[in-house]
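Long-time lurker. I teach an intro course on protein structure, and each term I like to show students one example going from raw sequence to a predicted 3D structure in token notation. This year I'd like something fresh instead of my usual example. Would anyone be willing to generate the tokens for the chain below so I can use it in lecture? Attribution to the forum is fine with me.
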Amino acid sequence: MDESGKLVAVIGDEDTVTGFVLAGVGHRTVEGQNFMIVKSDTEVPAIEDAFRSYTSRSDVGIVLINQHIANDIRHLLRDYNKTIPTILEIPSKDQPYDPEQDYIMQRVNLMLGGQA
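-- Reply from a regular --
Happy to contribute to a lecture. Here you go:
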């Protein structure tokens, strides 16, 4: 990929990923794709592998992940300390967003003098 832009990767439920792919975020090549649909029977190691893959790619600038899925790999998110790609937790249609679980919001709160 040229240096003019980076991809957005998505790890989410079917509705979330479909929406982002329809909006033009999806990118599929021989090497792979930049999105993963997580269903109720998707195993946590597969989610972990996708997260590691997307965060190690030089062509990915942002990784969007549904918060309820991020909770399954919270141990990886806590250890993640790179700026790019940036990890953003987003709500899903069926699961509300809880800013107290979002590690970025926790870091912002600490920087503003709040508690963890």
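Some talking points for your students: The mean pLDDT is 87. Residues 13 and 37 are 5 Å apart (CA to CA).
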